[in-house]
Amino acid sequence: MKPHRGFLYNSTLKTITSYIKNNKALSWVLGFQLFRLLLLPFMGLMPQDAYYYLYGQNLSLSYFDHPGMIGYFLRIFSEIFGQSIFVVKFTDFVITSLTIYSFYKLSSIFLSKHRMWKSMILLVSTICISILSFNSTPDVPLLLFWTLSILFLYKAIFEQKKWFWILGGITMGFAFVSKYTAILLPIGLIAFLSFSSRYRKLLISPWLWLSIVLFVGTTFPVWWWNYQNEFASFAFQSTERTGSISKFEIQPKNFFGAIGHQMFLLLPILYCVFIVFSFKHIKKAILKFKLPSQKTLFLLAFFVPTFVGFFLITPFYWVKLNWMMPSYISGIIIAAMYISRKLVKVQLIFSVVFHIALATQIIFFFVPIKSDDTWVGWKELSEEVKTLQQEYPDTFLFSMDGYKTSAQLRFFLNQKVYAQNVVGLNALHFDYLGDDMEALYGQNALFIDSDKRFKNNNKKGELDANVLSNFTNVIELDPIVLNENSGKARKFWVFYCINYQPKK
Does the reported pTM lie above 0.85? Predict the structure, then answer.
């Protein structure tokens, strides 16, 4: 007699529940992810969310600021589930959850079961994973494909499974189509093979070079878009930053700021473990000419260029908090080899306190954020702008804060909203959306300008010279003030711009 289907379901559910109860580490991992999932409905749309959603709604081979992988994911999820703030956040959550699972598969190769679960707790307890789960950035898909690349390359090299060279090449390419930082993946691969006495012979293997060819082939759309657009994206990401670093001006604020950011993302215990094992391995290599085991060397090849490399330039250049994130994948596996159970518990205490504070801020917004980099006020702004458009019909909308207000209004109003390209200034990817400024000739406009420091309800009282030079007249209207006398208070200046005369 066959078992009843309901019996099989209940039996399986009991087995899974029992396993989770008996595995405290897994309970922590699932607990952190459930916590993040439950917070998603309370999250408003960040400017980055809106901007990369704009990527997905304007499909292209690549984009001005970054390659387009995050935009492609957002487009896929919005096509399946519809357009909403929750769907945007859910996209990030799902991709990051896949990263966590990929990390589980990767760490289980290098670590004993006990240490593997240590590494899982260290990973999911970081603020980094929470940020990636809540906020759309190129780093979200980057970390997924970075993790998969290391996993596949390990299997290709250490387990001699040749087909994984193909998978490794493709995922390295997908990582590059996520963010240019992924160029450090093939660099790390070549570095490992060069320093490895056992696997150096693979440098002349056709499978390695097939992997590199597939990497280049997968990234071809990014190169082709740059070729068609005078390499604008590559220049934007490299020329200005290289120039700043080459000045070689020591700025302690940048150095200590970078340390503060990394301690926030990793939490103090894990960050200090990173510093300690980095120092130990580098000291052995330089002073004793002693390299670690082949597996540890492999992990270091994908850690040192990103973590140590960016750390070395912090005294001279402002290193953004997310630049070192890819190094966390192999770094946490190495950290799990050293860290004690007691320190893992301390890490968890830090993490729980930080996450409770984070949840409190997200839900109740106790601490006002005097910046446009916030999730509050944007939807309310769009409602106010709708009313303004009824009072001033046949006007187009634009803003001049890079991308933030324009992208947010595009999302909520579901209409064209322009950026500072209206007045002839560079406007990131808004310059590449194919908008014809000449077609707006003679029209009136509403210019929305955020008052980031919001101190009073007064008008701005001054007009931007670039706006004045492109319209025959500009009249300042009453500002839009949202959630007055609360922690969520926002203020936007409003200008009615008459008779658009774009400069050629």
Answer: yes
